[in-house]
Amino acid sequence: MAHATGLAYLKKEALPLMWCSGCGHGIVLGALLRAFEELEYEHNKVVVVTGIGCWGKADDYIATNALHTTHGRALSYATGVKAANPDLHVVVLMGDGDGATIGGNHLIHSARRNMDITAILVNNLNYGMTGGQYSATTPANSRTSTSKYGNPEKDFDICALVDAAGANYVARETVFNGLALKNYMKEALSKKGFSLVEAIGPCTTLFGPNNKMKQPVDMLKWLKEKSIPVSKYKGLAEEEREGYFAVGKITDRNVPDFGTRYSEIQKKLQG
Ligand SMILES: Cc1ncc(C[n+]2csc(CCOP(=O)(O)OP(=O)(O)O)c2C)c(N)n1
Fold this sequence. Notes:
Layout: H1 25-38, E1 46-50, E2 65-68, H2 74-84, E3 89-95, H3 96-102, H4 104-113, E4 118-123, H5 158-165, E5 169-174, H6 178-190, E6 195-200, H7 207-210, H8 216-226, E7 227-229, H9 230-234, H10 238-241, E8 245-252, H11 258-270
Parallel strand pairs: 1-2, 1-3, 3-4, 4-6, 5-6, 7-8
Antiparallel strand pairs: 5-8
Helix pairs in contact: 1-6, 3-4, 4-5
Bound molecules: thiamine diphosphate (TPP).
């Protein structure tokens, strides 16, 4: 089989991409479009639902159905889309501010509800679109436009949160490894129930330069150095984990999804 390019799902007339040079969002977009191609998704059977932010602009470039919603609320719109038409592949694209900070509560309850939706959360470690303020995933002590002398807050682990809340599939990779990202996306899209792929990426205009990583390549190298395979990470003591990201597949379970449980209740009532 020829290598997937994803080009059939790219809205070429919308190019060039609006993202800064060196931004990781293009790599995540490429991985997603290739995953669509390898899964042979029909264009009109896919709905990408986005929130607000740099990554939230991704739907501009995707030649499927799309719904551009409000900051932090993309998952609730996606829930409505899936409830109205369970045959659609519903894919939600959110940033770390969008999906895990203002939208944190929706993330918890979407995972708990376990509806058949896939979330692709790009964590560039700050609010990119609005000027690099710190978000819930900005590493402690990092410098941002709202923490000039170091972030006093502790960041949280999105994957651990979504796993604990009950999602069926959770994985994390950095944009340093686009191929692995594409493979995790394929698995997440194929999994029935709520799935999440966290893609850690560089914000080369704000987070990088604010933290002594002047060039895009500096941040890519940093992401590579800070990644530890999940199996190794699990064996580390709490203090050894500080500042590192566990990458790989974190959760893979087959709890009946919302749709299946809903149909069972319907059948019982009809019976
Ligand atoms: C309700 C609401 N609050 C705040 C904003 C302003 N706002 C727009 S984008 C954004 C941050 C986006 O950051 P993130 O979700 O991490 O995505 P990125 O831009 O980094 O890709 C904020 C705070 C908004 N549009 N709506």
